[in-house]
Amino acid sequence: MKELDRISQGYKDIVKDTDTVKFMTREEVKKIPKYKTVTYAWITANYREEKANPYQIRITVGRNLIKYSGLITLTTADLITSKIL
């Protein structure tokens, strides 16, 4: 949960916040103007005991609802390029 606390509004004096995301109630979501897009977050938790911090949280946002005019894909290197590097 530290990751969620870190990107949102923090948790007491334990985790410093970055205020990157804001969690909203259903009532707050209903008041959002129609010209704005609301998306969702898919949160997954994993436990890997071999890691220093075994509790891992990953967040993926609803990509199908995000409107972005720039490049949204990354090109990959072929096998020859990766061998040279």
Describe, in plain words, how this protein is organized in 3D:
The protein is an alpha+beta fold and 85 residues long. It has one domain (2-84). 20% of the residues lie in helices and 16% in strands. The protein contains 3 helices and 2 strands; from the N terminus they run ααββα. It has helices at 2-7, 26-30, 79-84; strands at 41-47, 55-61. Strands 1-2 form a two-stranded antiparallel sheet. The mean pLDDT is 77.
Based on the model shown, name its key terms.
85 residues, alpha+beta, 2 strands, flat
List the helices and strands and how they pair.
Layout: H1 2-7, H2 26-30, E1 41-47, E2 55-61, H3 79-84
Determine the fraction of residues in helical runs and give it as a percent range.
10-25%
Radius of gyration: 18 Å
According to DSSP, the number of beta strands is 2
Mean pLDDT equals 77
Work out the strand percent: 15-25%
Computed structural class: alpha+beta
Spatial separation of the terminal alpha carbons: 37 Å
Number of domains: 1
Spell out the helices and strands N to C.
HHEEH
Short description:
By secondary structure, the chain is of the alpha+beta class.
